[in-house]
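Task: sequence design from structure.
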């Protein structure tokens, strides 16, 4: 311990004498450690930290699988009942209503407010096992027709009640009825979705839940807790068998139904999110390795300048272990100092990521520098410091005292072995930088391809308003009158160009419709069916979205009139699927669960361009539009300029029309579409930033090696110039050495990138993982940067004084 204390004091004193070297080394390691810690804090919060539910890894979520369309869908109550009665692998099962269709209106406060609510079945909170922050959760006695009890979320508790502890027992007015608050959930409770602010009992005693004709409904999502000893794999097998039984027992409704059984973690986090974060964590690990290699080069260069000192120590009896410990102690001090810098970078990075990743990552608001993250910071800082110092320490320890004392003096790099180690570290830095730059280029190009994808409509200057009429609008005429008047009022506002409405702009559901074409054989129940959606449209929608008309005509307001002939407009993809090579205008069809029933034939009057209404990186599906209005609609308002200034005016007009129907989720189409690619954007942005850091560190490493190489070869360069070599030849000599390392690193990096191409391909959109343009660009960039890094030492070498160099020999 006395010797270690002596080494520690000497290390601090030595670094104080070389503040520029210490600052560069500490900042380099601190940047690498801090970046890794920031990304790890996100990885831990989103992926590694267990969900806030009791034994969350034993909870599964189940959807009905539409076999004909190969899509997940909601489940009916009767199918859920049979699953629950027949399962042996699940000890508990519950269900909740699909959250995209459950909204309610809060009144009795500062104003009417439309919120998302969770309609949850018996046992919902008990299965999840999360204790309320205040009060209790819903119990069996709350599931009656007369009960009016709710549990509220943490955000609503803060917003409406100021976080008061005496909120239990108070009432809240939901859909014009008073409900007693029996509990408040903690902020991390986010089921069914993160924006649910209130939970209400959903009970299945009504006749609509028991009617066998409702077995094909898609209203529920099912949760199950695995029984002791059961696994997800066993549960999947059992649920598949139960679904097969139900297909045989109820062929009219269940012929195309299976079951999707997945861990709740996959439902909340998503496999794409998890893979993306692991990719980012691996990428930032490359940055830390590059930082270690850069610092190792700096430490080695400094150590070689002290070989005389170490030779004297060895000659006076210092053992190899003593010399290694002395050298590693200085590296340990560097790593301890880098921890402080790394902590600052990690804090700044985590704050920035919490802002950048909003809307892109679930649970991002829980990111914090907790004990686990700080332990990671400590391990990464100490480990990287020791890794950076080990090779130089070992290189010094094998020095023979007599040979060192006879060598060329302090300017020597320590011979051929040391120069080779320097070059190997630079090659490793460049190889890792190439892999990061290649990945950054591919992801950036992929993101730009998504952003430039043909949307099929003009999304600029369009506001979307979600409107959900309450039960007081109990008839079609009332609903129609409301929307037509709302459109008229908004259209009259200055700056509004067009107004329309659609029942589901972003396609939350794709019903299992079958289509019957006039003059064609009907589809059989087991025939494969493409994903197909149908929307009701308030005329003016196509104009508001500027959707190109390919042929025929658009819908008109007269198509809404009582007794008007039934007409529809379809998209190009539907035309290709059902009338390939034909003009569909004038064709007639029926569609529905049973299109052979006595329903009206609908005439196709127009074809519009395909629209990417779900995600910009997903292809369009067949869809059709019919004139009509229902209680839930998305109003599309095109403005002549920036729509932000019209938000309040539109909201005022809507509330003036009916104060009990506040518009919900007012946003622009651009913002909504941006959310669908937010993860891609975040991924590309972070990897580009990491690649830029890697490029800078590689440049520092190349410059450091060339600078030390020129210093070590001062005598050789002097002799060459004395024998007739001119300045250009000296510059070529120095630049050639630097480019040789760069080319070796490029080759290794390109081979590594090619090896990772399969991993990268799953993250790319319309971009080849082995895109030659990307690799050519990376090659030219790295060669240019290396040339710049080597140019200053090369120019300095070409200006050497031959006589002065020869006198030092």
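Answer:
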């Amino acid at each position: 311990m006395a010797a270690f204390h002596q080494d520690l004091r000497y290390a601090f004193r030595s670094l104080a004498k070389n503040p520029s070297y210490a600052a560069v080394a500490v900042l380099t390691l601190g940047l690498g450690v801090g970046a890794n810690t920031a990304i790890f804090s996100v990885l831990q919060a989103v992926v590694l930290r267990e969900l806030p539910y009791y034994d969350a890894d034993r909870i599964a979520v189940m959807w009905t699988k539409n076999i004909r369309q190969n899509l997940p869908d909601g489940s009916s109550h009767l199918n859920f009942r049979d699953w629950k009665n027949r399962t042996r692998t699940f000890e508990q099962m519950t269900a909740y209503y699909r959250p995209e269709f459950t909204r309610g209106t809060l009144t009795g406060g500062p104003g009417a407010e439309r919120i998302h609510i969770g309609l949850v079945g018996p046992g919902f909170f008990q299965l999840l096992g999360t204790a309320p922050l205040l009060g209790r959760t819903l119990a069996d006695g709350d599931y009656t027709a007369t009960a009016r009890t709710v549990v509220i979320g943490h955000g609503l508790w803060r917003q409406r009640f100021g976080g008061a502890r005496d909120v239990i027992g108070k009432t809240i007015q939901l859909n014009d009825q008073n409900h007693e608050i029996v509990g408040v959930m903690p902020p991390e409770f986010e089921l069914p979705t993160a924006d649910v602010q209130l939970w209400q009992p959903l009970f299945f005693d009504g006749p609509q839940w028991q009617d066998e004709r409702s077995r094909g409904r898609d209203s529920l999502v099912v949760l199950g807790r695995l029984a002791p000893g059961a696994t997800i794999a066993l549960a999947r097998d059992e649920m598949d068998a139960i679904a097969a039984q139900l297909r045989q027992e109820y062929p009219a409704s269940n012929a195309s139904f299976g079951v999707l059984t997945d861990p709740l973690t996959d439902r909340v986090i998503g496999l794409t999110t998890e893979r993306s974060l692991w990719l980012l964590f691996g990428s930032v690990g490359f940055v830390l390795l590059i930082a270690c290699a850069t610092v190792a080069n700096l430490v080695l260069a400094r150590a070689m300048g002290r070989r005389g000192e170490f030779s004297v120590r060895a000659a006076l009896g210092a053992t190899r272990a003593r010399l290694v410990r002395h050298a590693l102690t200085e590296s340990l001090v560097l790593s301890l100092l880098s921890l402080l810098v790394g902590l600052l970078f990690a804090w700044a990075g985590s704050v920035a990521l919490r802002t950048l990743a909003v809307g892109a990552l679930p649970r991002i608001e829980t990111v914090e520098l907790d004990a686990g993250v700080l332990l990671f910071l400590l391990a990464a800082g100490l480990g990287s410091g020791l890794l950076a110092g080990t090779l130089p320490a070992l290189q010094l320890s094998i020095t023979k005292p007599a040979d060192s004392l006879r060598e060329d003096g302090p300017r020597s790099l320590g011979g051929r072995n040391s120069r080779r180690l320097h070059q190997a570290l630079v090659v490793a830095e460049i190889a890792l930088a190439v892999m990061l730059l290649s990945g950054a280029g591919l992801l950036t190009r992929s993101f730009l391809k998504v952003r430039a994808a043909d949307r099929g409509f003009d999304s600029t200057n369009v506001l979307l308003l979600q409107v959900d009429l309450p039960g007081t609008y109990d008839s079609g005429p009332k609903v129609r009158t409301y929307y037509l008047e709302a459109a008229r009022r908004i259209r009259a506002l200055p700056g509004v160009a067009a107004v329309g409405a659609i029942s589901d702009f972003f396609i939350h559901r794709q019903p299992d419709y079958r289509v019957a074409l006039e003059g064609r054989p009907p589809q059989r129940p087991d025939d494969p069916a493409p994903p197909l959606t149908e929307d009701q449209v308030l005329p003016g929608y196509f104009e508001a979205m500027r959707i190109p008309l390919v042929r025929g005509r658009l819908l008109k307001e007269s198509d809404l009139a009582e007794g008007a002939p039934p007409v529809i407009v379809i998209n190009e993809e539907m035309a290709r699927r059902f009338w390939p090579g034909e003009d569909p205008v004038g064709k007639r069809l029926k569609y529905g669960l049973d299109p052979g029933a006595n329903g009206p034939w609908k005439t196709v009057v127009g074809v519009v361009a395909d629209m990417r209404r779900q995600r910009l990186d997903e292809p369009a599906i067949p869809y059709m539009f019919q004139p009509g209005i229902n209680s839930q609609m998305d109003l599309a308002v095109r403005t002549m300029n920036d729509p932000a200034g019209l938000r309040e005016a539109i909201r005022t007009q809507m509330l003036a029309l009916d104060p009990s129907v506040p518009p919900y989720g007012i946003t622009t189409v651009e913002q909504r579409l941006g959310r669908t690619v937010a993860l891609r954007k975040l991924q590309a942005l972070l990897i580009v930033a990491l690649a830029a850091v890697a490029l800078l560190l590689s440049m520092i490493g190349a410059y450091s090696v060339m600078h030390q190489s020129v210093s070590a070869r001062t005598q050789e360069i002097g002799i060459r110039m004395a024998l007739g070599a001119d300045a250009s030849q000296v510059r070529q000599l120095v630049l050639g050495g630097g480019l040789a390392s760069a080319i070796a690193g490029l080759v290794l990096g390109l081979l590594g990138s090619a090896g990772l191409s399969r991993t990268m391909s799953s993250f790319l959109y319309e971009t080849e993982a082995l895109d030659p343009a990307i690799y050519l660009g990376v090659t030219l960039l790295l060669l240019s940067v290396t040339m710049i890094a080597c140019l200053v030492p090369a120019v300095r070498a070409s200006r050497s004084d031959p006589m002065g160099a020869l006198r030092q020999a």
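Residues 407-414 have pLDDT under 50 and may be disordered.
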